[in-house]
Amino acid sequence: MEFPSEKSSIVLVVMSGLPGAGKSTFANTLQAAFKVKYPDTVVFLVEYDALVKQIIPSEWKRQRLEVLDAVSHLVLTIRSGSSGREAESDKESLGEHILRFNAQALRSASRSSKIVVILDDNMYYRSMRYQVFQRAIQLRAGYCQIHIAVALGTAVRQNLLRTCPVPEEVIARMAAAFEEPNPTRYIFEQYSLVLDTVTSTSVDKAMVLVFRAMEDPPRNVDNDEAAWVAEERSKAQELNRTNLLHRADSILRLLVQTLCSLAKSQEDVNDDLRRVSSRAVGCRKKILQQLRDMANPDCEFEVIFDLQGFLTKEFDACYENDNSQ
After folding, report:
1. Angstrom distance (rounded) from CA 189 to CA 129
2. SS3 of 9, please?
3. Among 22, 103, 110, 136, which is most buried by a count of CB atoms within 10 Å?
4. Distance from CA of residue 176 to its chain's centroid?
5. Residue 46 — φ and ψ, nearest 5°?
6. Over 70: is that where the pLDDT of 68 sits?
7. C-alpha of 254 from chain center
8. Distance between CA atoms of residues 43 and 28, nearest Å
9. Does residue 150 contact residue 134 with C-beta atoms inside 8 Å?
């Protein structure tokens, strides 16, 4: 049974910012502050890094949608008062993972609790944040954004302190592509807080924002605004697709050149070089075509994808496969 509407106070809070900006630290600080100042408010954390552990181009969009589905599962579980345990399975679902990670918060939640769900991710495109906004409408929940704005150099330095640092080139690409909150143009971003430094005052401001958003949940989608977001997303994706294919071609050409240089040092140079060159060029063309097919308008992974590592593995596998035939 769902909470009566007058007692259903749930808000989705999107954290955005570069890797190393301090989003997770702030999210944890905010959770602790709510526990002290507003014990009737229970905060749940959803860390994308823990849920999407391996970035696979063909799976990336589906994985992110699964996280949103898991957030919906969390909200519905809270409202129903159930344990959230799904049918027995050898593999834990994302929804079950979130519930297990937030087990203490789930035990603390009651029918009169105010619920804050913090989505901790980079959210570098506005369209990513808009998806959460749309989900908030479906769930009859409030929506707000907290953006941690730090200089690229600061993010790079702080990123090195992480257990699993993000490659510096990825952070640089993300910084160039980042679409920061713009509440002046986009109504859905009206409840936004941009922080360039994090202090105790920042935490207080964030709590005020959360409660304001909770009291004024979005009720419908503005069609004009949805079109603006879609247009912005389409332009960014087409640029990403062009950048991806250009970078991929450069990397693959270098891999072909390296392999041919190695073949020159072997005996029977002419024969080996012809065979190596033919197979290597064939692999390059094959992989490029696979990328063209894969880099469709729905993919936004180019900004964060480790293309060098992916292409090296694909090239080696392709070449070895051709060599064994």
Report:
1. 9
2. strand
3. 136
4. 16
5. -120, 105
6. yes
7. 30
8. 9
9. no
Predicted confidence (pLDDT) per residue in 22-54, tens digit? 999 999 999 999 999 998 899 999 988 877 765
In Å, how far are 57, 110, 246, 253 from 316, measured between CA atoms?
A: 18, 55, 20, 13
User: The sheet that has 114-120: what strands, in order across it?
Assistant: 41-47, 114-120, 9-16, 142-148, 192-195
The token duo for 105 is 């918060």
Euclidean distance between CA atoms 120 and 15, whole angstroms: 5
Q: How far is CA 223 from the centre of its chain?
A: 25
DSSP string covering 158-222: HHTTSSSPPPHHHHHHHHHH-----TTT-GGGSSEEEESS--HHHHHHHHHHHHHHHHS---S--
pLDDT of residue 16: 96
Q: Average of pLDDT values for 5-12? A: 66
Cα four-point dihedral sign 127, 53, 43, 175: negative
Phi-psi region of 68 (alpha: psi -120 to 50; beta: other; left: phi over 0): alpha
Placement of tokens 């190596």 in the chain = 276
Phi, psi of 54 (to 5 degrees): -125, 120
The structure tokens listed for 8 are 């259903």
pLDDT digits (tens, 9 = 90+) for 268-306: 555 567 777 888 888 888 888 887 776 554 445 555 566
Read off the pTM. Answer: 0.75
CA 58 – CA 52 distance, rounded (Å): 13
Helices and strands (DSSP H and E) totals, the chain: 12, 5
SS3 257: helix
b/e burial code for range 148-181 (CB count within 10 A of at least 16 → b): bbbebeebbebbeeeeeebeeebbebbbebbbeb
3-state SS, residue 43: strand
